[in-house]
Amino acid sequence: MGHGIGQVFAMAGFRVTLIEPSQERLDSGLAKVHKNLEKGVARGKVTTDIQKLAVSNLSGNTDVTKGCQDADLVIEAVPEVLDIKVNVFTQAEASAAPHAIFATNTSSLSVQEIGNALRQPARMLGLHFFNPVHIMKLVEIVISEKTDVSLPEVTKALVSKIGKTPILVKDSPGFASSRLGIAIGLEAMRMVQEQVASPADIDTAMRLGYGFPMGPLELTDLVGLDVRLDIAKYLSRMLGERFDPPQLLQDYVAAGRLGKKSGQGFYKWNDGKKVTE
Ligand SMILES: NC(=O)c1ccc[n+]([C@@H]2O[C@H](COP(=O)([O-])OP(=O)(O)OC[C@H]3O[C@@H](n4cnc5c(N)ncnc54)[C@H](O)[C@@H]3O)[C@@H](O)[C@H]2O)c1
User: Fold this and answer.
1) CATH architecture type of domain 177-274
2) How far is residue 149's CA from residue 161's CA, in Å, rounded to a whole number?
């Protein structure tokens, strides 16, 4: 998600520093942005002027404190683990501008709990993007009880400036989108487990019967089964057993079937494309 978030801000004219823990990962993130932009130009979705603007606005760093020097806005998209997120923000706060806004892209963790690690917890909120970031229009702005009252309006304007639609959500487990999306996804997995129908037919039911642009199992493959498993475990702890991860999901993750990124999830994937059988 991190490179995608960087891309959309760079395209909107903001100077962006992409931060990764190693040069190899940083190069890979920057290369993904360049590839996305090239694809966008080839498809007529991005002008060459915007491509040039984005490339010139984008730089990288492998050190959080150095990369966040005087930053006005710090957005993290590191793994869905509280300690890792807290560690990143603690390093960022040491060098970011005093007025900086700190935003987490967490899909489910408590924004307030992450913010408690800051010297100024009022500067923390959630900016929850959707995958793939350069295409999906929604951003959930997650407001905790400690978030400064001025930040919702400031971030709504920011989100609009990068061409996305903001919604305001209270800091509660799963916010609006993950809570509902995971509930549907887990039920679809239980249906596969009980052999009610094939993954393809379950997805077709939701696309054609309910107008979903993509079925819940294909979406799970796209997001990553490991990511969804982590979210389900968290929501199960916070909201109860209705979010217990189905055995099938646990087995697939244990076997390395993580979805598109590993080549197999509920579907087979080859070169980033779903294989139709
Ligand atoms: N995948 C999605 O569709 C999606 C959607 C919305 C929000 N999110 C959230 O965004 C966050 C990232 O998810 P993702 O799918 O991009 O994960 P990912 O595993 O693809 O990316 C994690 C990134 O963090 C970096 N990283 C790993 N360990 C680190 C460390 N110790 N310190 C600093 N950086 C480290 C990795 O190099 C990588 O670039 C999670 O909180 C996830 O819940 C994901």
Assistant:
1) Orthogonal Bundle (1.10)
2) 20
Instruction: State in Å: Cα 110 to ligand 1 middle.
Output: 16
Class of domain 2-170: alpha beta
**Per-residue pLDDT in tens (0 to 9) along the chain, 277 residues:** 999 999 999 999 999 999 999 999 999 999 999 999 999 999 999 999 999 999 999 999 999 999 999 999 999 999 989 999 999 999 999 999 999 999 999 988 899 999 999 999 999 999 999 989 999 999 999 999 999 999 999 999 999 999 999 999 999 998 999 899 999 999 999 999 999 999 999 999 999 999 999 999 999 999 999 999 999 998 999 999 999 999 999 999 999 999 999 999 999 999 999 998 7
Structure-block tokens of residue 26: 């940083």
The residue whose CB lies within 8 Å of the most ligand 1 atoms, and thus the one to mutate among 78, 80, 105, is 78
Q: Do domains 2-170 and 177-274 have the same CATH topology?
A: no
- Best of 227, 229, 253, 258 to mutate for ligand 1, by most ligand atoms within 8 A of CB? 227
Which ligand 1 atom sits nearest the alpha carbon of residue 231?
Answer: 43
d(CA 76, CA 266): 29
Segments making up each domain of the chain, as ranges: 2-170, 177-274
How far, CA to CA in Å, does 73 sit from each of 9, 62, 77, 128, 270?
11, 18, 13, 14, 37
Q: 244: closest CA among 200, 186, 197? A: 186
Q: Closest ligand 1 atom, CA of 108?
A: 43
Write down the pTM of the prediction: 0.86
